[in-house]
Fold these 4 entries.
Entry 1:
Amino acid sequence: MFHLKTTSSECAARRGQLLTRHGTVETPVFMPVGTQGTVKAMSQEEVWNLGFRIILGNTYHLHLRPGEELVRQAGGLHRFIGWSGAILTDSGGFQVFSLEDLRKITEDGALFRSHIDGSEHFFSPEGVVDIQRTLGSDVLMAFDECAPYPSDHTYTERAMERTHRWAQRCTRHWRGPGAGGREAEETTGQLFGIVQGGTYLDLRSRSAAFVSQLELPGVAIGGVSVGEPKEAMLEVVAHTAPLLPRDRPRYLMGVGTPEDILDAVREGIDMFDCVLPTRLGRTGTAYTSRGRANIKNAKYADDLTPIDPECSEWCCRSHSAAYVRHLYKADEILALRVLTYHNLAFYAKLMAGIREAIEGDRFLDFRREFLGSYRTTQRDGVTEGGASE
Amino acid sequence: MFHLKTTSSECAARRGQLLTRHGTVETPVFMPVGTQGTVKAMSQEEVWNLGFRIILGNTYHLHLRPGEELVRQAGGLHRFIGWSGAILTDSGGFQVFSLEDLRKITEDGALFRSHIDGSEHFFSPEGVVDIQRTLGSDVLMAFDECAPYPSDHTYTERAMERTHRWAQRCTRHWRGPGAGGREAEETTGQLFGIVQGGTYLDLRSRSAAFVSQLELPGVAIGGVSVGEPKEAMLEVVAHTAPLLPRDRPRYLMGVGTPEDILDAVREGIDMFDCVLPTRLGRTGTAYTSRGRANIKNAKYADDLTPIDPECSEWCCRSHSAAYVRHLYKADEILALRVLTYHNLAFYAKLMAGIREAIEGDRFLDFRREFLGSYRTTQRDGVTEGGASE
């Protein structure tokens, strides 16, 4: 269920609420990635205390380890991991298709080998709905085939068409015999469809139309952040978002940087997830009000000020840049904790600012002001993207 | 400064208070090891919230990285790491002597190479007092030569005699020209002497007498927990403790297991440190009211109860054994956090129980009851000891 509260008068930015069985999520929202049932380096309390009310889980990873049966015995993923907010699970499609040599795709689904122990598994559209249902997800994602970048038009079209057929099968299975969508939603969470079509706008139009007519509780734009140029991604978003149902939440999968999020919000996107803040934190990079800072840089060796002077959270109240750098160089876990916490605090603050700005109908001003002080001072060859970690 | 509050009527157990420039520490006390300026996997807040009021730092490690000069600029180690309790630093002796091929010992001190970058450093008795003073330690340890186990009587005696001469030099340097001990203590923390002598009780007697006459604020028993049999360690403690000044705190370095601590408290020891709870936590072992539990064990795979049902802390309130096992097997940082936190909570509770029991003059009963329920069910070849981590 989605409640659209207000829209910008200057652009397509929207302020809404995603209503789930585990509470209300204020949108636009960034969802921290908790691949294996934990947001890496964080405790669930810390994620909650930063204001996050929804996190991601990865169906592929949780299916392989610990397996949905144990999670079911524990009373669902929320109870298993001790998280009282909402949980969105992906369909596993992205991970399975990333396996390349270890998988075989047929119309029926995907046969693949576990990256952990080589054991054989099969994901079908119906099967991944069942797994997500067993996990107890609040938002389930339809099984999709994500074409790699670059792919030609023919390949991308074929993958998109299969994604549509799979989306139909997921929808039918999720609705169950004779049950309406609302009932399915209340007992088993909300199913989101996924628009594919690569960087081909004609395919994106067709896919948006197809997925929209399924009348699912939400729609995602998939197949972005897979290596395409940033401009192509934004073009896809700007083109596709207006084609999606106005009264349903729009989720841009795997995106992104603060700049990407600001751009996509302007186009009317409501939900985001990305491994960047957590992964960069663990590799020594902090998002700050002055751009990204690489804590390994020698200039922080005797910098006794906080990593981000504008951060008022635990990470920056209690630890100087020099101390965090020392911890990082000495391979101490606390370094990863502080940096991850800080980056998530940065994203939480960004999203709160975005929501407040839309409410005050000054989103474009907010965006301008944010980007003005946020200068990307150090990039250090960071690889972006990747849907799980 | 030490304030002896009460002693057991049945044994030598003592209940006291160590008064430092950073607050009062209730004894008997266990001090978590924060080798490089962090108790591994913990935040300073977490350590504090578990009730700890004193932690260890390692002079060797902090001298090499980040260096005492940066720490001085930060306003001392307490401010650098954000810890408002007390800090005890070792002298670096144990680490330097562990370097074996990388060090050369003369009467003047120890020349050694850094294990990090091979750079050359020299530790003298006066120098390590200066480093600890620069770090801002509340309790400084005298530079000592810790004979390895086994060592013959002649070697052990020679190392002990050098330790005595070094203790004298440390004491003179710490007191400063014309300054009394109390003044030195207030400006630069309390210096503790270290009794050596290996497993030879005649040497321990001589060393206890020598170190006692230095009239330092505290006395440590060093050179235990270096590989000798547990019985030999306890024999040394039982023999040495009564020879130490009654009005000064007694610190048993690098000890130990819950059983060791209970035995040593009975002999009149006030202070302990050991890497066991933190190191075992990071390698998957939890101390529980029913003995040690190896979370890797298959029997925890579907155990949805807490690791220790008698633990009421965050670690066991919010996480089942099966979840922690899943996190551990999936290489998630949260596993190390939960297990370390739990083990320190276990030690904190043990020490609080010991203190309360001595106050109620029922320490031997407490010891019996604790050991009755605490059965070492799994040991799994864990290596004990090691003064830093």
Entry 2:
Amino acid sequence: MRDLILHINCPDQRGIIAQFTGVLYDHGANVLNLEQHVEPDAKLFFMRIHADLSNMEISEDALHEILMAQVKKMNAKIQFYYPENRQKMAIFVTREAAPLYDLLIKHQSGELPCEIPCILSNHQDLKNTAKQFNIPFHHLPISPKTKPDQENAVREIIKKENIDLLVLARYMQILSSAFVTDYQGRIINIHHGFLPAFKGNNPYRKAWERGVKMIGATAHYVTADLDEGPIIEQDVVSVNHQHSVQEMIQAGRDIERRVLTSAVKAHLQHRIILDGQRTIIFHT
Amino acid sequence: MRDLILHINCPDQRGIIAQFTGVLYDHGANVLNLEQHVEPDAKLFFMRIHADLSNMEISEDALHEILMAQVKKMNAKIQFYYPENRQKMAIFVTREAAPLYDLLIKHQSGELPCEIPCILSNHQDLKNTAKQFNIPFHHLPISPKTKPDQENAVREIIKKENIDLLVLARYMQILSSAFVTDYQGRIINIHHGFLPAFKGNNPYRKAWERGVKMIGATAHYVTADLDEGPIIEQDVVSVNHQHSVQEMIQAGRDIERRVLTSAVKAHLQHRIILDGQRTIIFHT
Amino acid sequence: MRDLILHINCPDQRGIIAQFTGVLYDHGANVLNLEQHVEPDAKLFFMRIHADLSNMEISEDALHEILMAQVKKMNAKIQFYYPENRQKMAIFVTREAAPLYDLLIKHQSGELPCEIPCILSNHQDLKNTAKQFNIPFHHLPISPKTKPDQENAVREIIKKENIDLLVLARYMQILSSAFVTDYQGRIINIHHGFLPAFKGNNPYRKAWERGVKMIGATAHYVTADLDEGPIIEQDVVSVNHQHSVQEMIQAGRDIERRVLTSAVKAHLQHRIILDGQRTIIFHT
Amino acid sequence: MRDLILHINCPDQRGIIAQFTGVLYDHGANVLNLEQHVEPDAKLFFMRIHADLSNMEISEDALHEILMAQVKKMNAKIQFYYPENRQKMAIFVTREAAPLYDLLIKHQSGELPCEIPCILSNHQDLKNTAKQFNIPFHHLPISPKTKPDQENAVREIIKKENIDLLVLARYMQILSSAFVTDYQGRIINIHHGFLPAFKGNNPYRKAWERGVKMIGATAHYVTADLDEGPIIEQDVVSVNHQHSVQEMIQAGRDIERRVLTSAVKAHLQHRIILDGQRTIIFHT
């Protein structure tokens, strides 16, 4: 099988599905799965098509050309993804081990379709965890003075390793606007709070003080506005007056890792389409 | 707008989406939403299309004929549903008020697209609830001797009122096999337990004795095998050693009503396709 | 049985449980249930005791006196509640029917130990709902000019009916600081958002725009700071890109009513103790 | 601090709390936390007391003697646990890595108060996982013929390592009745299904075939009846028609590990009291 995943979005209009699936059918590409979504107020159409090209009657270049003509006709945007090209993911960490472990374990068991060429950290604490899974660990310490240099060192590693996706698995550093802009839509962060509540530092302490009865975690794409990027996944767990801040942190860990890994998996499977500050997440 | 909802299922093959949406597009029917699902092992394809016919260039009869030709070609089955034809729903109850209230309140607020011509019961307890919402209440008491007669009386009401959907909202009577067979796929029951655990009577007591830490409810289509029909929706709520059987019943009530109303809504919106003992439930 | 519920809070110190239960045991009061909680940082102790006085060997006045001596010795605060004195609850509504219905249905089924002498509203929309359950409905319209007068009318009804608890079941008016202060700890509100996110108006629209993947509801005591009072209960429901604002509102309704009714029940059963901005909620 | 945890259960009667806390208070033992539960039908009383003995005025032996006298007077049973005596836990696995990893990670981060002297398996698959965390791995293969010998080898390791708790983290072997009886109340198993539904093998396949909308996991004490032991914790996750059996297995993994680790933690913290086939699980 030779798989192709298409993301198509355009102004809503008649015949989008018929015409795109018609093009594929006419040339022997087999639609395995199709999901679409219309935003009625903005009149925008979004579609993900998963097709099998193994019985195509034309070349992939020819298909590409025909699809681009259709795209132009419909004033659409299109993305082509080939699942057999495995993406490369870099994981950024500081001291918290749980989300890193979860990514490494799920990767090891085959649930995350990617390679992990490196783990980067501003501290040494998780060096042994990287070693447990035989993944190169880059210790890049940071201070107010060295911040720009450190970010340059990060950029070099990303470039050298051809990194597609940057995952901030409780990386306790704020990336510069320039950095975030350069990797737009390719950085996923886990925030240990239920956004938009409890932005910034110490969300568990803030949650304790406010006396909330549920604590949450939020995986989102990183944008220049801290904790304001498009949300991919959220989950919560019940707490009560018996939970100390420390016990909230422990309860939150399970949620954080699950939410982050699930968001990373959706990204790697090309199931996410961005719609401004909102995400469309298809199921298959 | 003149809406049409299609349910199509057939052996999996190439070009199903392209050809059906092509037919609709060619004649001016606008696809508002399309969802499909493939069972890979059984190689079966299922699709729901929601289309707007208001700008069609041919008659509805002509469209019907063209679609039937396509259906025949693909060895498919098709169902046509017109949402503007409001379905008629009969609610069967015994003594428990919560699920009945929920259906009536959600119906009153416009969430359930149907008419409710009657409430049927083997007891008088909920007569006043029916009266609160001005819905005719039929008291049809039942005894081992009168069971066949009672079922005949039920059949007459269903026939007279042109009932499309029978909802058993904690109706504590077992319908005869003949009755169930005659209304196959049109009877929804709420079981106050997490099927397939705790079939039959007194599921809360059984759950208490077994010491479970969650209790659940299950909405399902009724088949001749008690509590074995295709499951539509399930939910659970946590319980602990402090819950008496009575408190489990109270906790379960909220789950039962929510699960039942949600399943009824999915049915009324033509979002459910049966696949043997499994249900495919589309989202929109 | 003659039941007494005690709330006791004091600086943490040795022997609190032993001494209070000792006093009760010594005079024939039988502890049915005891729950306690210590805030380790603030070194505060909180306890709820449910006792049966029916075999007491002294008068209730005598017991009261002995307990007050113990309270004084321990620098404690104590509250006495007698469950057989049913509380009186007033429900405030505007247009949204779901939480009102839930309170009335649960009251009718015996789950809420209180009387409901009146429903108050600034609109007429829910007059019929009140009538369905034979509860007096007071229509008290409000305008910027008449706000103080309206509040005075509300105060008169509360006084006349000896109201213990004011429940704002989607009452879309902000109460004056003076009013809130006068009924401190006796007003419960349901906010249709997951506090502290989405305070104020239109939380569902804000949630849609932010693209959250869960929406919530929060029941809390009302204080002078809008939506800042101590949280009693919260819950959430998952949403996705397919949910319109309207569908979020529908999904939220089930959560709102469940959370509000549950919070009201905890209050009526004297299971809530306030600890500053936090609530301690005992289970039994 | 010198901590003592007491489990006391006895026929319900007056003054249990007062008398036991009185004894402790009289001799300088400070109650940090007390939780109790009464089964009203069976008239049984259960209590967990967490006390600090560091300011005791008598010896621990003397306290023990006084408490035993009280126990005798009340026809009670008592257990003494000293948290500073860390328990020893053996983990049994076969091929599934997720629950093992979770126990090891939570142990490493300090959440599980125990030592892990060994991991036992009938296969070699998880040898490397044990090595990653530097825990001795015992490969004890099993065949119908060698089963008794293998169990004897297991018994020897348990004896040699002074194991207190045996955790079956997806150990795909059925222990003999004799073995289970000998370690009654000291073996915790994770069943990858929502008991009492889907007992035995392949619960995910059974769940898929039945078309359930939620799958679950159950941690329970092992008794001679397979999957019938007292339930400690359960949780579920929603699934739909899009989930293949394989995807159900993946979704279930997160639930299994969370439920097992949480049950193990409750046991290690002496928060579980058995009441026949039911478990009482205290919170602190």
Entry 3:
Amino acid sequence: MDRIQATYIATRPDRDPETLGRAIALEQSVEVIEELVTPEIRESLVGRVESVEARGDEKYRITVSYAPEVAAGQVGQLFHLLFGNISFYPRLKLVDVTLPPAVTGQLHGPRYGIDGIRLATGIGQRPLLCTALKPRGSSVEHLARLAGEFARGGGDLLKDDQNLVHEDFESFKHRVDACATAVERANDQTGRRCLYLPHVAGSGSRLLRQLEFVHRRNLPGVLLCPLVMGLETAGRMAADFDLMYMAHPAMAGALTEPEDHGIASGVLLGTLARVSGADISIFPGKGGRISAALSECRDVVDLLTCPFNGLHATMPCPAGGKTLDMLEDMGREYGPDCAILIGGDLLKSGDRLAEVTGQSIGKLAGLYGEQQHAPAEWRMSSCELPGMQISALKHYLKKNPDFEWDGRESQLYKDDDTLPFKGVRRVELMGNNGEQMNFDLRYFELAPGGYTSLEKHLHTHVIIGARGTGTLVLDDTHKPLGEHDLAYIEPLAVHQLKNESDEPFGFYCLVDRDRDRPMGP
Amino acid sequence: MDRIQATYIATRPDRDPETLGRAIALEQSVEVIEELVTPEIRESLVGRVESVEARGDEKYRITVSYAPEVAAGQVGQLFHLLFGNISFYPRLKLVDVTLPPAVTGQLHGPRYGIDGIRLATGIGQRPLLCTALKPRGSSVEHLARLAGEFARGGGDLLKDDQNLVHEDFESFKHRVDACATAVERANDQTGRRCLYLPHVAGSGSRLLRQLEFVHRRNLPGVLLCPLVMGLETAGRMAADFDLMYMAHPAMAGALTEPEDHGIASGVLLGTLARVSGADISIFPGKGGRISAALSECRDVVDLLTCPFNGLHATMPCPAGGKTLDMLEDMGREYGPDCAILIGGDLLKSGDRLAEVTGQSIGKLAGLYGEQQHAPAEWRMSSCELPGMQISALKHYLKKNPDFEWDGRESQLYKDDDTLPFKGVRRVELMGNNGEQMNFDLRYFELAPGGYTSLEKHLHTHVIIGARGTGTLVLDDTHKPLGEHDLAYIEPLAVHQLKNESDEPFGFYCLVDRDRDRPMGP
């Protein structure tokens, strides 16, 4: 199957189930009345009803499929496609999703996953022990002490409670730094590596600054709440800052709990968590304060870990007020590849936290053995960072006569009367050769009578005159541009450079590295 | 009441309703077992059960309150506080929320709201007519034609269908530009102002670039899907880019539709949409393809428009496959302060789109009159945006003799034997004067015998020789730097520039805008 497939259970549908299937297919892909759908759009974009089966109890199982392109390579659009508008249809539950490689290949999935977490902790084979720093309102010193004691006892994963939020960055920084320091000191003592994942929340620059701090502080990852922050935003932020991503299920129950409506937990906390890049997915396990049926837990675990188009497996993390006396049963139930979250019941051991943590690790090791390795470096992509390739390149460019530079090739643009430019030579000087900069520096030269394209774009230019004299056409003005004259070209300003002289006209052109393509005037 | 209040209906609760109330209060504020809550934390952070009432049919109405600080001034945290973890409790619906001024004051609410939209369109008094550009898969030309015809007919608000998503920025830009141009041309003809709101989706730099384009293209706002993108992210992005924000309810039905679980539509599409900054909130109206009960519609409209701690009112936008024959009834039902969305039923008028739009506007004017004003400038904060001050500034810099530029001051660094530099003149040329660039361009000049500080930093430099000849000291090498010689200084390389000649030595220095401070060698 090379199409996206979504399967729904409709309970007591408000229309004939076949008609409902066609309505879903149309609503989710183009959302328009049938008569406005052309044959081309129907063929390429509109969903197809693959099957409709009666399941008794006035329930019908409806499967709809879509071309991979409909997801547009975006987790947010996939989420929308599966249940966005039809979330308003009565008594409809999304229970199964199949994604072809054409979709998963664009979404990437977990970057670390179970294998990456095992490498980073150095713990093979057994379930990992996880706890949560809380309660909110505790002093920084108290939280740091808990963090250090859990790590000293050999705990594997330490996450912030998702209620730990700060109104300002400085208090976030101070608290996270204190907890990270406590964990590092304990790790130095034990020779193990407890991974500390602070909770990051908010939006805009507040969000980015916290992520930047976690990255620079050399912490391995973060706890994010994807259904509060946005499923796609959460995965993207973790990837952009090269952080492990633990997904908290806050708000997910609004979708998973109703029996006849919403999204099944296996799809939401399993498949969608995995494709959106969660390395660890927290879900309510059976028993304790927040409990789920064992069959639902098994669905989530299966979908996080099953073979899936080559995506890494996500570490399942059963949670929800679980207690220490459940530890071995959970270890048996969920298998060795899980992280078991015990919060309050572990924290309440107070001064004995390290000791009780050690005993708990012992119980998990007793089930499967431990196989401890030296923890490995956790950053996955540092060797790919542009800054690392630089030393091999030539970064001192002596100008030769006629504005040529050693180590940089001139590109001569072929003249052709049908082209919108004429007589242009270009040299890519800096930015395109492995340098770590947010901008590119190029030299352009126009032969007498030459000109660049008349164009506009969202990105800006800075122009520095370097040789001879030309003319800058900027919206309705014409300005001469001689040596060391400067111009700034603002977003979407229509511009062109011309050489109306008898000598070459050369200029430097500076642009942002990340930029859009030009449009016509 | 100076506290946040949340009211839930619990149906067939799994425990004594008083106990359930206390569990909610603890779960949502500190999520920890009672014995770990200190008296101080209990007093300042833990929620209080305000009331528990039996409502018959095994239903109980439970009201819990929290200190305003618990929301931490963030929409995301407020959302989480109201229903995050307890979304996993069975049969629990959030039906009412009261927010004190201490909370709404930090969240701001709509920036334009009904009044701002009326100013921008120039239409007082009557309901606005809105349509959606679709279907996805149509050519750019077709969509632009629809846009132009709707505007030519006097339509008020034009939004993209939320299925209009693009895999790349270039196709977004071309489509939006074409539709915007068509609307502008029509507005020039009619003297009215139809507002065009493109759909923006995705995350990270993809999201930012689209928003930047909409802002720079001088469009008034965007359509966003807050429950896909994140409630807080959506409001924040619109505010950061100074755009009107129309909220699409995709995925909201997963929370609002179950009778016994989730979040009531009045709370989600009314109160939460409003505090998170939606200027227009789309919701399913009564009748048509996606229909809601009239009582729910009234709740949404009331909560969007009622007096609420001084927040602007959000424009209600009933939608969901509504048809032209419902127009006048809807206008009567929802009152003059609404935007009525008619999609497919209007678009199917084909070549008669402008004419049918005009007739529809006539019907709405017939209900309440029209009171047309000259449309006002819609930007609320444009004077605060760095990019918007540009036209008043000088962006064409003619070089004067001795490397001075009109409009830019030279800074002469005072010489003092205790300082690590000598004989330095600096001119901030571009980047620091309101230009929108990711880098800064400066000119430095060293007098004979002058030098810069010997230093290193994480950010990089590009140096372009401009006048005379100097020496670049880079780690252990010395390189001459004459006119148009170039150098790249990589991260943490120790460097210094010297003038050992008898003439001034000038050079351009390019740096990333966002950069760290230098350290000693």
Entry 4:
Amino acid sequence: MKIYLAGPDVFLPDAIEIGRRKAAICARHGLTGLYPLDNAVDLSAADASLAIFEGNEAMMDAADAIIANLTPFRGPSADAGTVYELGYMAGRGKLCFAYSNDPADYAERVARSFAVTKASGGHLIDDDGLTVEDFGLPDNLMMIHTLDLHGARMVTPRQRPLDIWHDLTSFETCVRLAADRAIGKSG
Amino acid sequence: MKIYLAGPDVFLPDAIEIGRRKAAICARHGLTGLYPLDNAVDLSAADASLAIFEGNEAMMDAADAIIANLTPFRGPSADAGTVYELGYMAGRGKLCFAYSNDPADYAERVARSFAVTKASGGHLIDDDGLTVEDFGLPDNLMMIHTLDLHGARMVTPRQRPLDIWHDLTSFETCVRLAADRAIGKSG
């Protein structure tokens, strides 16, 4: 089983090393991890961003499943590129797995950066008066329920690990879930 | 042509009214707008979030295209739920259109909320040392290029409108682009 390894990990200073660690964990479980190409492209080329897109789309099309790192990125929600890729894989009917190294629920995450209050209707709103989803889920319901229905429940640690960008415990749990499915498929 | 109308518009205090306005604009151009169900579900029910997910997924499956509102939402990027839906529709091979009422490029958006500096390699990084995409695009490259390849270039106004959540000028441009494709398809 080939697994597309989506996440803002590609933006880390040691992005290539993290990709190697993730691929090695996949290999230990009999799976092949495909790591996005963002760091294998000449960024000074005029069409660098398009080359990354086309490479990543081809890699997703070749994969049977996705493991998405949905740890909050520059705000209360996951990285937009990763979320796009999760949606794309769900749309293609592939198996969807994901983890977040931040177990806090969405309303709590929003309250870290915005003034969350109760509107007259009793629901939560932010500074702009826009509703804050309050279903006790870690992120937007579309992402959470697609995992429930098209893969497995999102994996979160009981406590936020010390190094939120390098701890791969929850990632490895996703790899195990994928490996169980791979065995189920071939058996 | 049926168009799924994705966006954080569902979180506005006047969400239902905005949905009506968007559907009316679609109708004027001979198209059918399908507005997400978030506001048609009993939020006190135990499975409210799942009911919204299932309703929205069925609506996306019934649609031929998506028009996504990718205006930045609680951070430099678009609303995660909307981004998920854009990915899902791209994965299903549907036509993809989108607009953002904020024309600023991504690095500029990040710099509004985070300390962006140059790393020793010359690329931009945020407070955490994570790379800030700097391709002159308004948001993450995966979303921008999927529009270029599976629909039309993202629509942005020359200037940010006064009311970023209610101005539907760029939305109507997307509807026109979709209507042109609908005529091309049947002609």
